[in-house]
Amino acid sequence: MKLKTFLTLSLLAGTLSFAQEKKTEKPKFNQELATSLGADKYGMKPYTIIMLTSGPTKVEDKAKMGELMKGHLANIGKLADEGKIVVAGPFLEQNKENYRGMFIFNTKSKEEAEQWVKTDPAVQAGVFSYEIFPWYGSAALPLYLKHHEEISKENP
Known about the structure:
- Keywords: Signal.
- By secondary structure, the protein is an alpha+beta fold.
- It has helices at 3-23, 31-37, 62-81, 110-117, 121-124, 144-151; strands at residues 44-54, 85-90, 99-105, 128-138.
- The chain is elongated.
- The N and C termini lie far apart (65 Å).
- A hairpin with an 8-residue loop joins strand 2 (85-90) and strand 3 (99-105).
- The model is unreliable at 1-12 (pLDDT under 50).
- Strands 2-3-1-4 form a 4-stranded antiparallel beta sheet.
- Helices cover 44% and strands 22% of the residues.
């Protein structure tokens, strides 16, 4: 192999190796951010998941159901604005458990989460029931909400 070719290949391999090392470099730990989010040493924290299920009340009147869903969505927005809810959304497929949607609340207290879910007009009307589960996830989860507004053209 010619020296020039060898040097070119060596330089290319070194450059690629450096580029790969740079990609896998761990971001610098940010203690201030971790503390502000309530993160433990793993960057995690407890939350409470509410699984919304089909409730005992069936509302046939489409206008009334529309108003309940409008109130349901407004309540989600209010809870998100207050920092109480970090994830909310419906399931896209029917399932054997009759789970309709879920909330992830920014609390480890099942009692507090239950108080918050009971503010939902659709829960109050019996359209939705719920189950409560403690959950452990990334403390950074609430940060996605601020970016959601940047990517959504409309709100339901």
